[in-house]
Amino acid sequence: MNIRAVGWLLGCVLLLLAGFMLVPAVVSAWFREQAAFEGCIGSALVTAIAGGFFTVTCRDATITEEGRVDYFRREGLAAVGLSWMLAALAGSMPFLFSGVMTSPVDAFFESASGFTTTGATILTPDAIDGLPRGIAFWRSFTHWLGGIGIVLVFVLLFPAGGRSLFRSEVPGISREAVQQRVRDSALGLVRIYVVLTLVEVLALWIVQRDLFDAFIHAFGTLATGGFSSHSSSVLYYSSWKVELILVVFMFAAGINFAVYDIFLRQGLRGAWRAACGSSEIRAYAGLIVGSTLLIAVILWFWGGSNGNPESDLPNYTSLTKSLRDSLFTVVSVQTSTGFGTEDFNRWPDVCRILLMVLAICGACAGSTGGGMKVVRFLILAKAALQGVRNFARPRAIHSVRLDGGSLPDGTVGMVMSYCGLWFLVFIVGTLIIAGMDIRPPAGFEDQVPLIAATSVLASLNNIGPGLAAVGPAGNFAFMPEAAKLLLSFFMILGRLEFYAVVILFVPRFWRS
Predict the structure, then answer these.
(1) Are 344 and 351 in contact (CB under 8 A)?
(2) How many CA atoms lie within 13 A of 4 on its CB side?
(3) Residues 156-208: tens digit of each pLDDT
(4) DSSP states of 111-159 as a string?
């Protein structure tokens, strides 16, 4: 292991991050927010000094005489895992230096939630509505940076060895999308990401006429993050037009970005053919449509307040209202975005359980969405059917097939290993969190097990809201500091698909 090569790569990440911190500084200057401006500038300066130190001290052991970057798969994997931890640490400084937060743990939690596109927050509703514009921008900008991945950004600068980095950050992307040079594929994905963001900003600006809010919600949508500039989230607008725009772009962000790469090379027809030919994308769309209809019907029969003006429940006597809220919530939860138009914590239990199942399932591999990914559940289902066939006909040769091809046993084994690891971490994490001194707000005192389980689930799947006190209308402020740190670690663990982080704790990985 070339430790200095890892240090040089991390230094480059910090330098890039320092440059990005100047953007919210400009926003703060525009709105004449002195404390926020000084906080962003100070953070950028500290981050740049740290990045410069790493790049200068580690350069001689990293750059060859031919000017190439000398690192291999292990160095790339180490840089992937460590860069997210460093980014979360550096990203916490604007919150602290601006005076918005006084607790380093709270600032780290908010930063980790941003970069991992989780969207969980420790801020109360009043604190969210009172955030300086520059800090609110940085809070959502971390979503946007995390969505495409800091690692993916520096792949553009270092094509040598970039394939391992690229696959680590976008593990589900198809072979077709990475057969070209990694640099070209990465540039194409970044262009798509930027263009989609600008198109959404324009659409939102036309509808609600607030450019700042348009950027905030576009950042949260394309990255499937969910931070909003308003404590009531998207409900603030009460606009079906805004909701429709967000639904379209949330759905698009949950699709494998390899489809967009194919669009750049083969046009709309090629991309459409690839999307329709993908079992994962068909299952992803089918889950959204089926779940939307099911929840809408349940809400309609339930009725909510049933038109009673004294009830604080939403009125679901209209099928249109039921469909509207169901569609937005299902897309938001399955893509792990976390925007809300209604507090689904108050919906019938069957709806809440179904939403948590969708959250675990997640979006497509190779997208900015979270969750365990649809393709893994497809492979698990097919492997289970294969097991039944093998039991019935033990001498026959059966293989797991996906999209017309047979999957290697190693691929099926890795999927099973990942799912087993996920459930192990979920169970152990839930037990640890439940064993801490959790003091939830009034009305939720008897729901600690549910709070513990869904907070871990929301963190591992990068969803944001869970149920009970950590639901869409709640926050994580009441959690003890140890729980916040553990949940922050779970966010990074889930964002990097476990292995890139777990491998950092294997001693053999660091040996020469």
Answers:
(1) yes
(2) 12
(3) 434 443 444 344 333 344 444 444 444 566 777 788 889 999 999 999 999 98
(4) HHHHHTT-------HHHHHT--HHHHHHHHHHHHHHHH-HHHHHHTT--
**447 is a domain residue:** no
User: Can you tell me which residue has the tokens 């772009």?
Assistant: 249
What distances in angstroms separate CA 266 from CA 257, 314, 391, 509, one per listed residue?
14, 46, 44, 40
Domain membership of residue 326 (yes or no) is no
Residue 42 lies in a domain: yes
From residue 115, give the alpha-carbon distance in Å to each of 104, 143, 158, 285, 492: 16, 5, 22, 26, 9
Question: In this predicted model, what pLDDT tens digit does every residue of 337-371 receive, in sequence order?
Answer: 999 999 999 999 999 999 999 999 999 988 889 89
Domain coverage including residue 109 = 3-169
Token pair for residue 47?
């981050």
Q: Is 419 within a domain?
A: no
Overall number of domains in the chain: 1
Q: CB-based contacts of 215: which residues, under 8 Å, 6+ apart?
A: 137, 140, 201
| Full DSSP string of 277-339 | T-HHHHHHHHHHHHHHHHHHHHHHHH-BTTT-TT--S-B--SHHHHHHHHHHHHHHHHTT---
The C-alpha atoms of residue 484 and residue 350 are separated, in whole angstroms, by 29
